[in-house]
Amino acid sequence: MSAQTLYDKLWNSHLVRQDDDGTALIYIDRQLVHEVTSPQAFEGLRLAKRKPWRIASMLAVPDHNVPTTNRAAGIADPVSRIQVETLDANCAEFGITEFKMGDIRQGVVHVIGPEQGATLPGMTVVCGDSHTSTHGAFAALAHGIGTSEVEHVMATQCLVAKKSKAMEIRIDGALGLGVSAKDIALAVIGQIGTAGGTGYAIEFTGSTVRALSMEGRMTLCNMAIEAGARAGMIAADDTTFAYLKGRPFAPQGAMWDKAVAEWRNLHSDEGAVFDATVVLDAASIRPHVTWGTSPEMVVTIDGCVPDPATLSPEQREGAERALIYMGLKANTPISEISIDKVFIGSCTNGRIEDMRAAAAVAKGKKIAANVTLAMVVPGSGLVKAQAEQEGLDKIFIEAGFEWRDPGCSMCLAMNDDKLAAGERCASTSNRNFEGRQGQGGRTHLVSPEMAAAAAIAGHFVDVSKL
Amino acid sequence: MDKFTLLNGLVMPMDRANVDTDAIIPKQFLKSIKRSGFGPNAFDEWRYLDHGEPGMDNSKRAINHEFVLNQPRYQGAQILLARENFGCGSSREHAPWALEDCGFRVIIAPSFADIFFNNCFKNGLLPIRLDATQVDNLFKAVEAHAGYRLVIDLEKQTISAPDGTVYLFEVDAFRKHCLLNGLDDIGLTLQHVDEIAAFETRHLAAQPWL
Q1: Residue B133 has pLDDT above 90, yes or no
Q2: CB-based contact B30:A77 (threshold 8 Å)
């Protein structure tokens, strides 16, 4: 057989049938469910008198709407509360495993899947959430789907799909001081643009990627969708297996050994051909900060807000509009931009390693007087517990940060955590779209290290120089 | 799902690239557990001057008269003319639900985000890719002629302009079939129930940890 990419292997091993025009049915091993994109799917099932095909393949958690403070009081917003209660009721009705709001295992859906070992190498993973690409870090084929597809997977265990093209993004070399997986992701998007990966499944390869922890790999795959690719993925290796071993949903004992033997094949073969290849040199990647309203509007910390007049005609109008929205002037050095709020968390950067990286910067310091709120929102109850065991909560609290309960929080501001109009935020989340963190709010995407450093300084600073 | 065959519709231009799903339907409206009723809040942050929340009486809100959706000449538009990377961002199907609820049946753009593109077909919305020059020409034509309409023929895969220009477009054969006949994907897939079950038995036997 000819050399295959990792994507070929994952696609072929889940192909139930394929029509002559390429329309295929792909078997789905794991469906993750949250409260926002599932109610209409459950309703559809009920109306058609259908049942979920394989209940054991599903795992549910409320994350988008949950409060991050005073949980004992429940959810104040009645509309949010109904949505979470609807998920609880649907899971109870169909017998689906759910980590409810009071459960220590509750958290952001893309944090808890891997944390529980519910995401395994070789799987197909879907969720009604575009950041499902995160799970590709485990050599899984994972991508976001719409609610009709959520219902379709529930009812048939399959997805109607056409094979994407394959793109290799190869990053080699050692990362510099203060440079993280988030900066790699932003550098990639800065290079290929937010539509650069459209129509592709991206595999991240190279020595830099191999050297990343699973947390770093998840951050990188998480942002594949911001480059336009529905799926991002990374070959399985000993780092993958070490992360998964002993997790509740992972195989145990002899079954574990058998699984690992199988998973060792989950990489692109020598000589496999990609439809496109992009190469980055890790040594040249610096800490990044976005300046506009699309993740591709990004520069390094030593850069300046660009002058739209110097951009191509296609980019100029968007850049002008972004600068007005962001309240920024062309040619302002990034390090002179002051911030009002800081958000550390999300499915991009809400894992234990992110907490540690931010805490290392914040340790023994105080947030700047002009920062009105700096919040740390762990990705799950278990991340929170682990961080507290390591004393990270104390470091944050002593520095003036708020230490919250897990959820999506101000990544998309569906709960009470949001920016007021005009407020400027250093955020470890994934989207800087207009209004994303609150109407009129201004988002700058950065790594956890850079967010913590900005909280302390009150403006963006080069974390590698601290 | 409604069938889609032929549409003679008014065109509304939205001249900006990277229109994301957060803009199409802001997150506060995703809290609904229904599929319908999103139309009045489509592009909420652009079409109203105040901040919108679910349950507000939209007829009493301050309108942004400059926004295309509020301009009298585009009332009743069924065809949305857009720029690159339309529908990027979140996978929320609320975005096509909102557009459909606004009355749109066709979106024409040089490129779409993948998940949004898929979601459209599930809801009787036809996303059409034309090349950037053709889209540019259409923007100019819409701008120049009040009441500009296009005729979309899905069967023939053509867009006919008033000046006699006919644009051909590509559409996936399976999706075309489903739209033309208003077919439900799940029902179609379940025709292959035996194949799925046989695959599953083999698959789970080979990887019992799944």
Answers
A1: yes
A2: no
Residue A11 in tokens: 């696609």
> Strand pairing of B79-81 and B106-109?
parallel
Residue of A nearest to B116 (CA): A146
Q: Where are the beta strands (DSSP E) in A352-441?
A: 373-376, 402-403, 424-427
Instruction: Read off the pLDDT of each residue in A309-334 and give the average, rounded to a whole number.
Output: 95
Confidence of residue A1 (pLDDT cuts 50, 70, 90): low
DSSP helix/strand/coil, B142: helix
**Spatial contact of A184 and A208, defined as CB atoms under 8 Å apart:** yes
Q: How far apart are CA A328 and CA A306, in angstroms?
A: 10
Subunit contact B31:A436, Cβ cutoff 8 A: no
Quote the CA–CA distance of A203 and A234 in Å, as a whole number.
6
Q: Do B174 and A160 touch (CB under 8 A)?
A: yes
**Biggest CA-to-CA distance, chain A:** 64
Contact A33, A153 (CB under 8 A): no
Helix H or strand E encompassing A290 = strand A288-290
> Taking residues A311-318, what's their average pLDDT?
91
**Contact across the interface for A148 and B93, Cβ inside 8 Å:** yes
Structure tokens at A149: 């597809």
**Per-residue pLDDT at A122:** 98
B159 is written with which tokens?
């867009």
Q: Name the closest residue on chain A to residue B85, using Cα atoms.
A: A195
Phi, psi torsion values for A24, nearest 5 degrees: -125, 160
Torsion sign, CA atoms A420, A425, A428, A429: positive
- Whole-angstrom distance, CA of residue A425 vs CA of residue A374: 9
Mean pLDDT score of chain A: 97
Task: Return the structure tokens found at A455.
Answer: 């909280």
Nearest chain B CA: its distance from A315 CA (Å): 9
C-alpha A159: how far from its chain's center? 22
> Looking at CA atoms only, how far is residue B25 from chain A in angstroms?
11
What single letter denotes the amino acid at residue A21?
A: D
Residue of B nearest to A127 (CA): B91
**Three-state DSSP class for B207?**
coil
Single-letter residue type at A445: L
Q: What is the pLDDT of residues A344-397, one digit of tens each?
A: 999 999 999 999 999 999 999 999 999 999 999 999 999 999 999 999 999 999
